[in-house]
Amino acid sequence: MRFKPYSVSKIECFLDCPKKFEWRYITKPDVKQTVKHFEKGKLWHSLIEHSIKRTTKNFVKPKFYELSQEEYLHELSNIVKFVKGRFFLPYLQDVMRFKQLLEQRFSITDDGEVSFNNDLNPLFKGFIDLVQFDDFDVEIIDWKTGGKSVENIQRYPKSTFQLDVYAYVAHKIFNPKSIIGKYVYVEHEYEHVLKNFNHMETWREILWNINTIENCKDFERKESTLCDWCEFRGICLE
User: Fold this and answer.
1) Is 182 left (phi over 0), alpha (psi -120 to 50) or beta?
2) What does the buried/exposed string (b/e) look like for 153-175 if buried means 16 or more CB atoms within 10 Å of the residue's CB?
3) Tens of pLDDT along 83-131?
4) Domain map of the chain by residue range?
5) Is the pTM of this model over 0.85?
């Protein structure tokens, strides 16, 4: 396969715009990428994980390239309010009920088998921000930053593909009675919850998307509102 291993972000990149996929994963032109929103997301993820672990170790500030000191302190203040607030409290209390895995990496083989170990030649790989489980139930959580408002998030909901894949992984590993998936928009204290998953359909969707990408010959531009946020916007419009 040309583009193995696959991931949620790699497939979603192609679905958003085949041309963007070509630039990001094939031709890789030398363009300046705006990484501020990635740095912001990394800061939120790091401090949330630090809080859930309840570690006594001091928090180590990630290295930033575009996020200024003023912006860092602003985000830090918002994150501290979030992890000390009522919305986040249940996630801290869940440690009494659930076993927890933070930033759990996974691999999926060509025949659909899943492992939490690093497969030497996976078809698909990724990691889940938080897995909470007991003998019967599994909750899979992905922390999200961004979104203008709760109303905007509800009006333009994110694809469920990411949670569908994570639920497939949880099904294969734990075989639980129930699976709950959550996109948690931390800046808005809002949860997008999914409870009904079709694991066979998810596996077919993964294979169909991979087959589509592998057989793609002309990576055509797909114009949308996402173009304004694309790192290749400058060369795309030339």
Assistant:
1) beta
2) beeeebeebbbbbbbbbbbbbbe
3) 999 999 988 887 777 888 988 999 999 999 999 977 778 999 999 999 9
4) 26-84, 87-216
5) yes
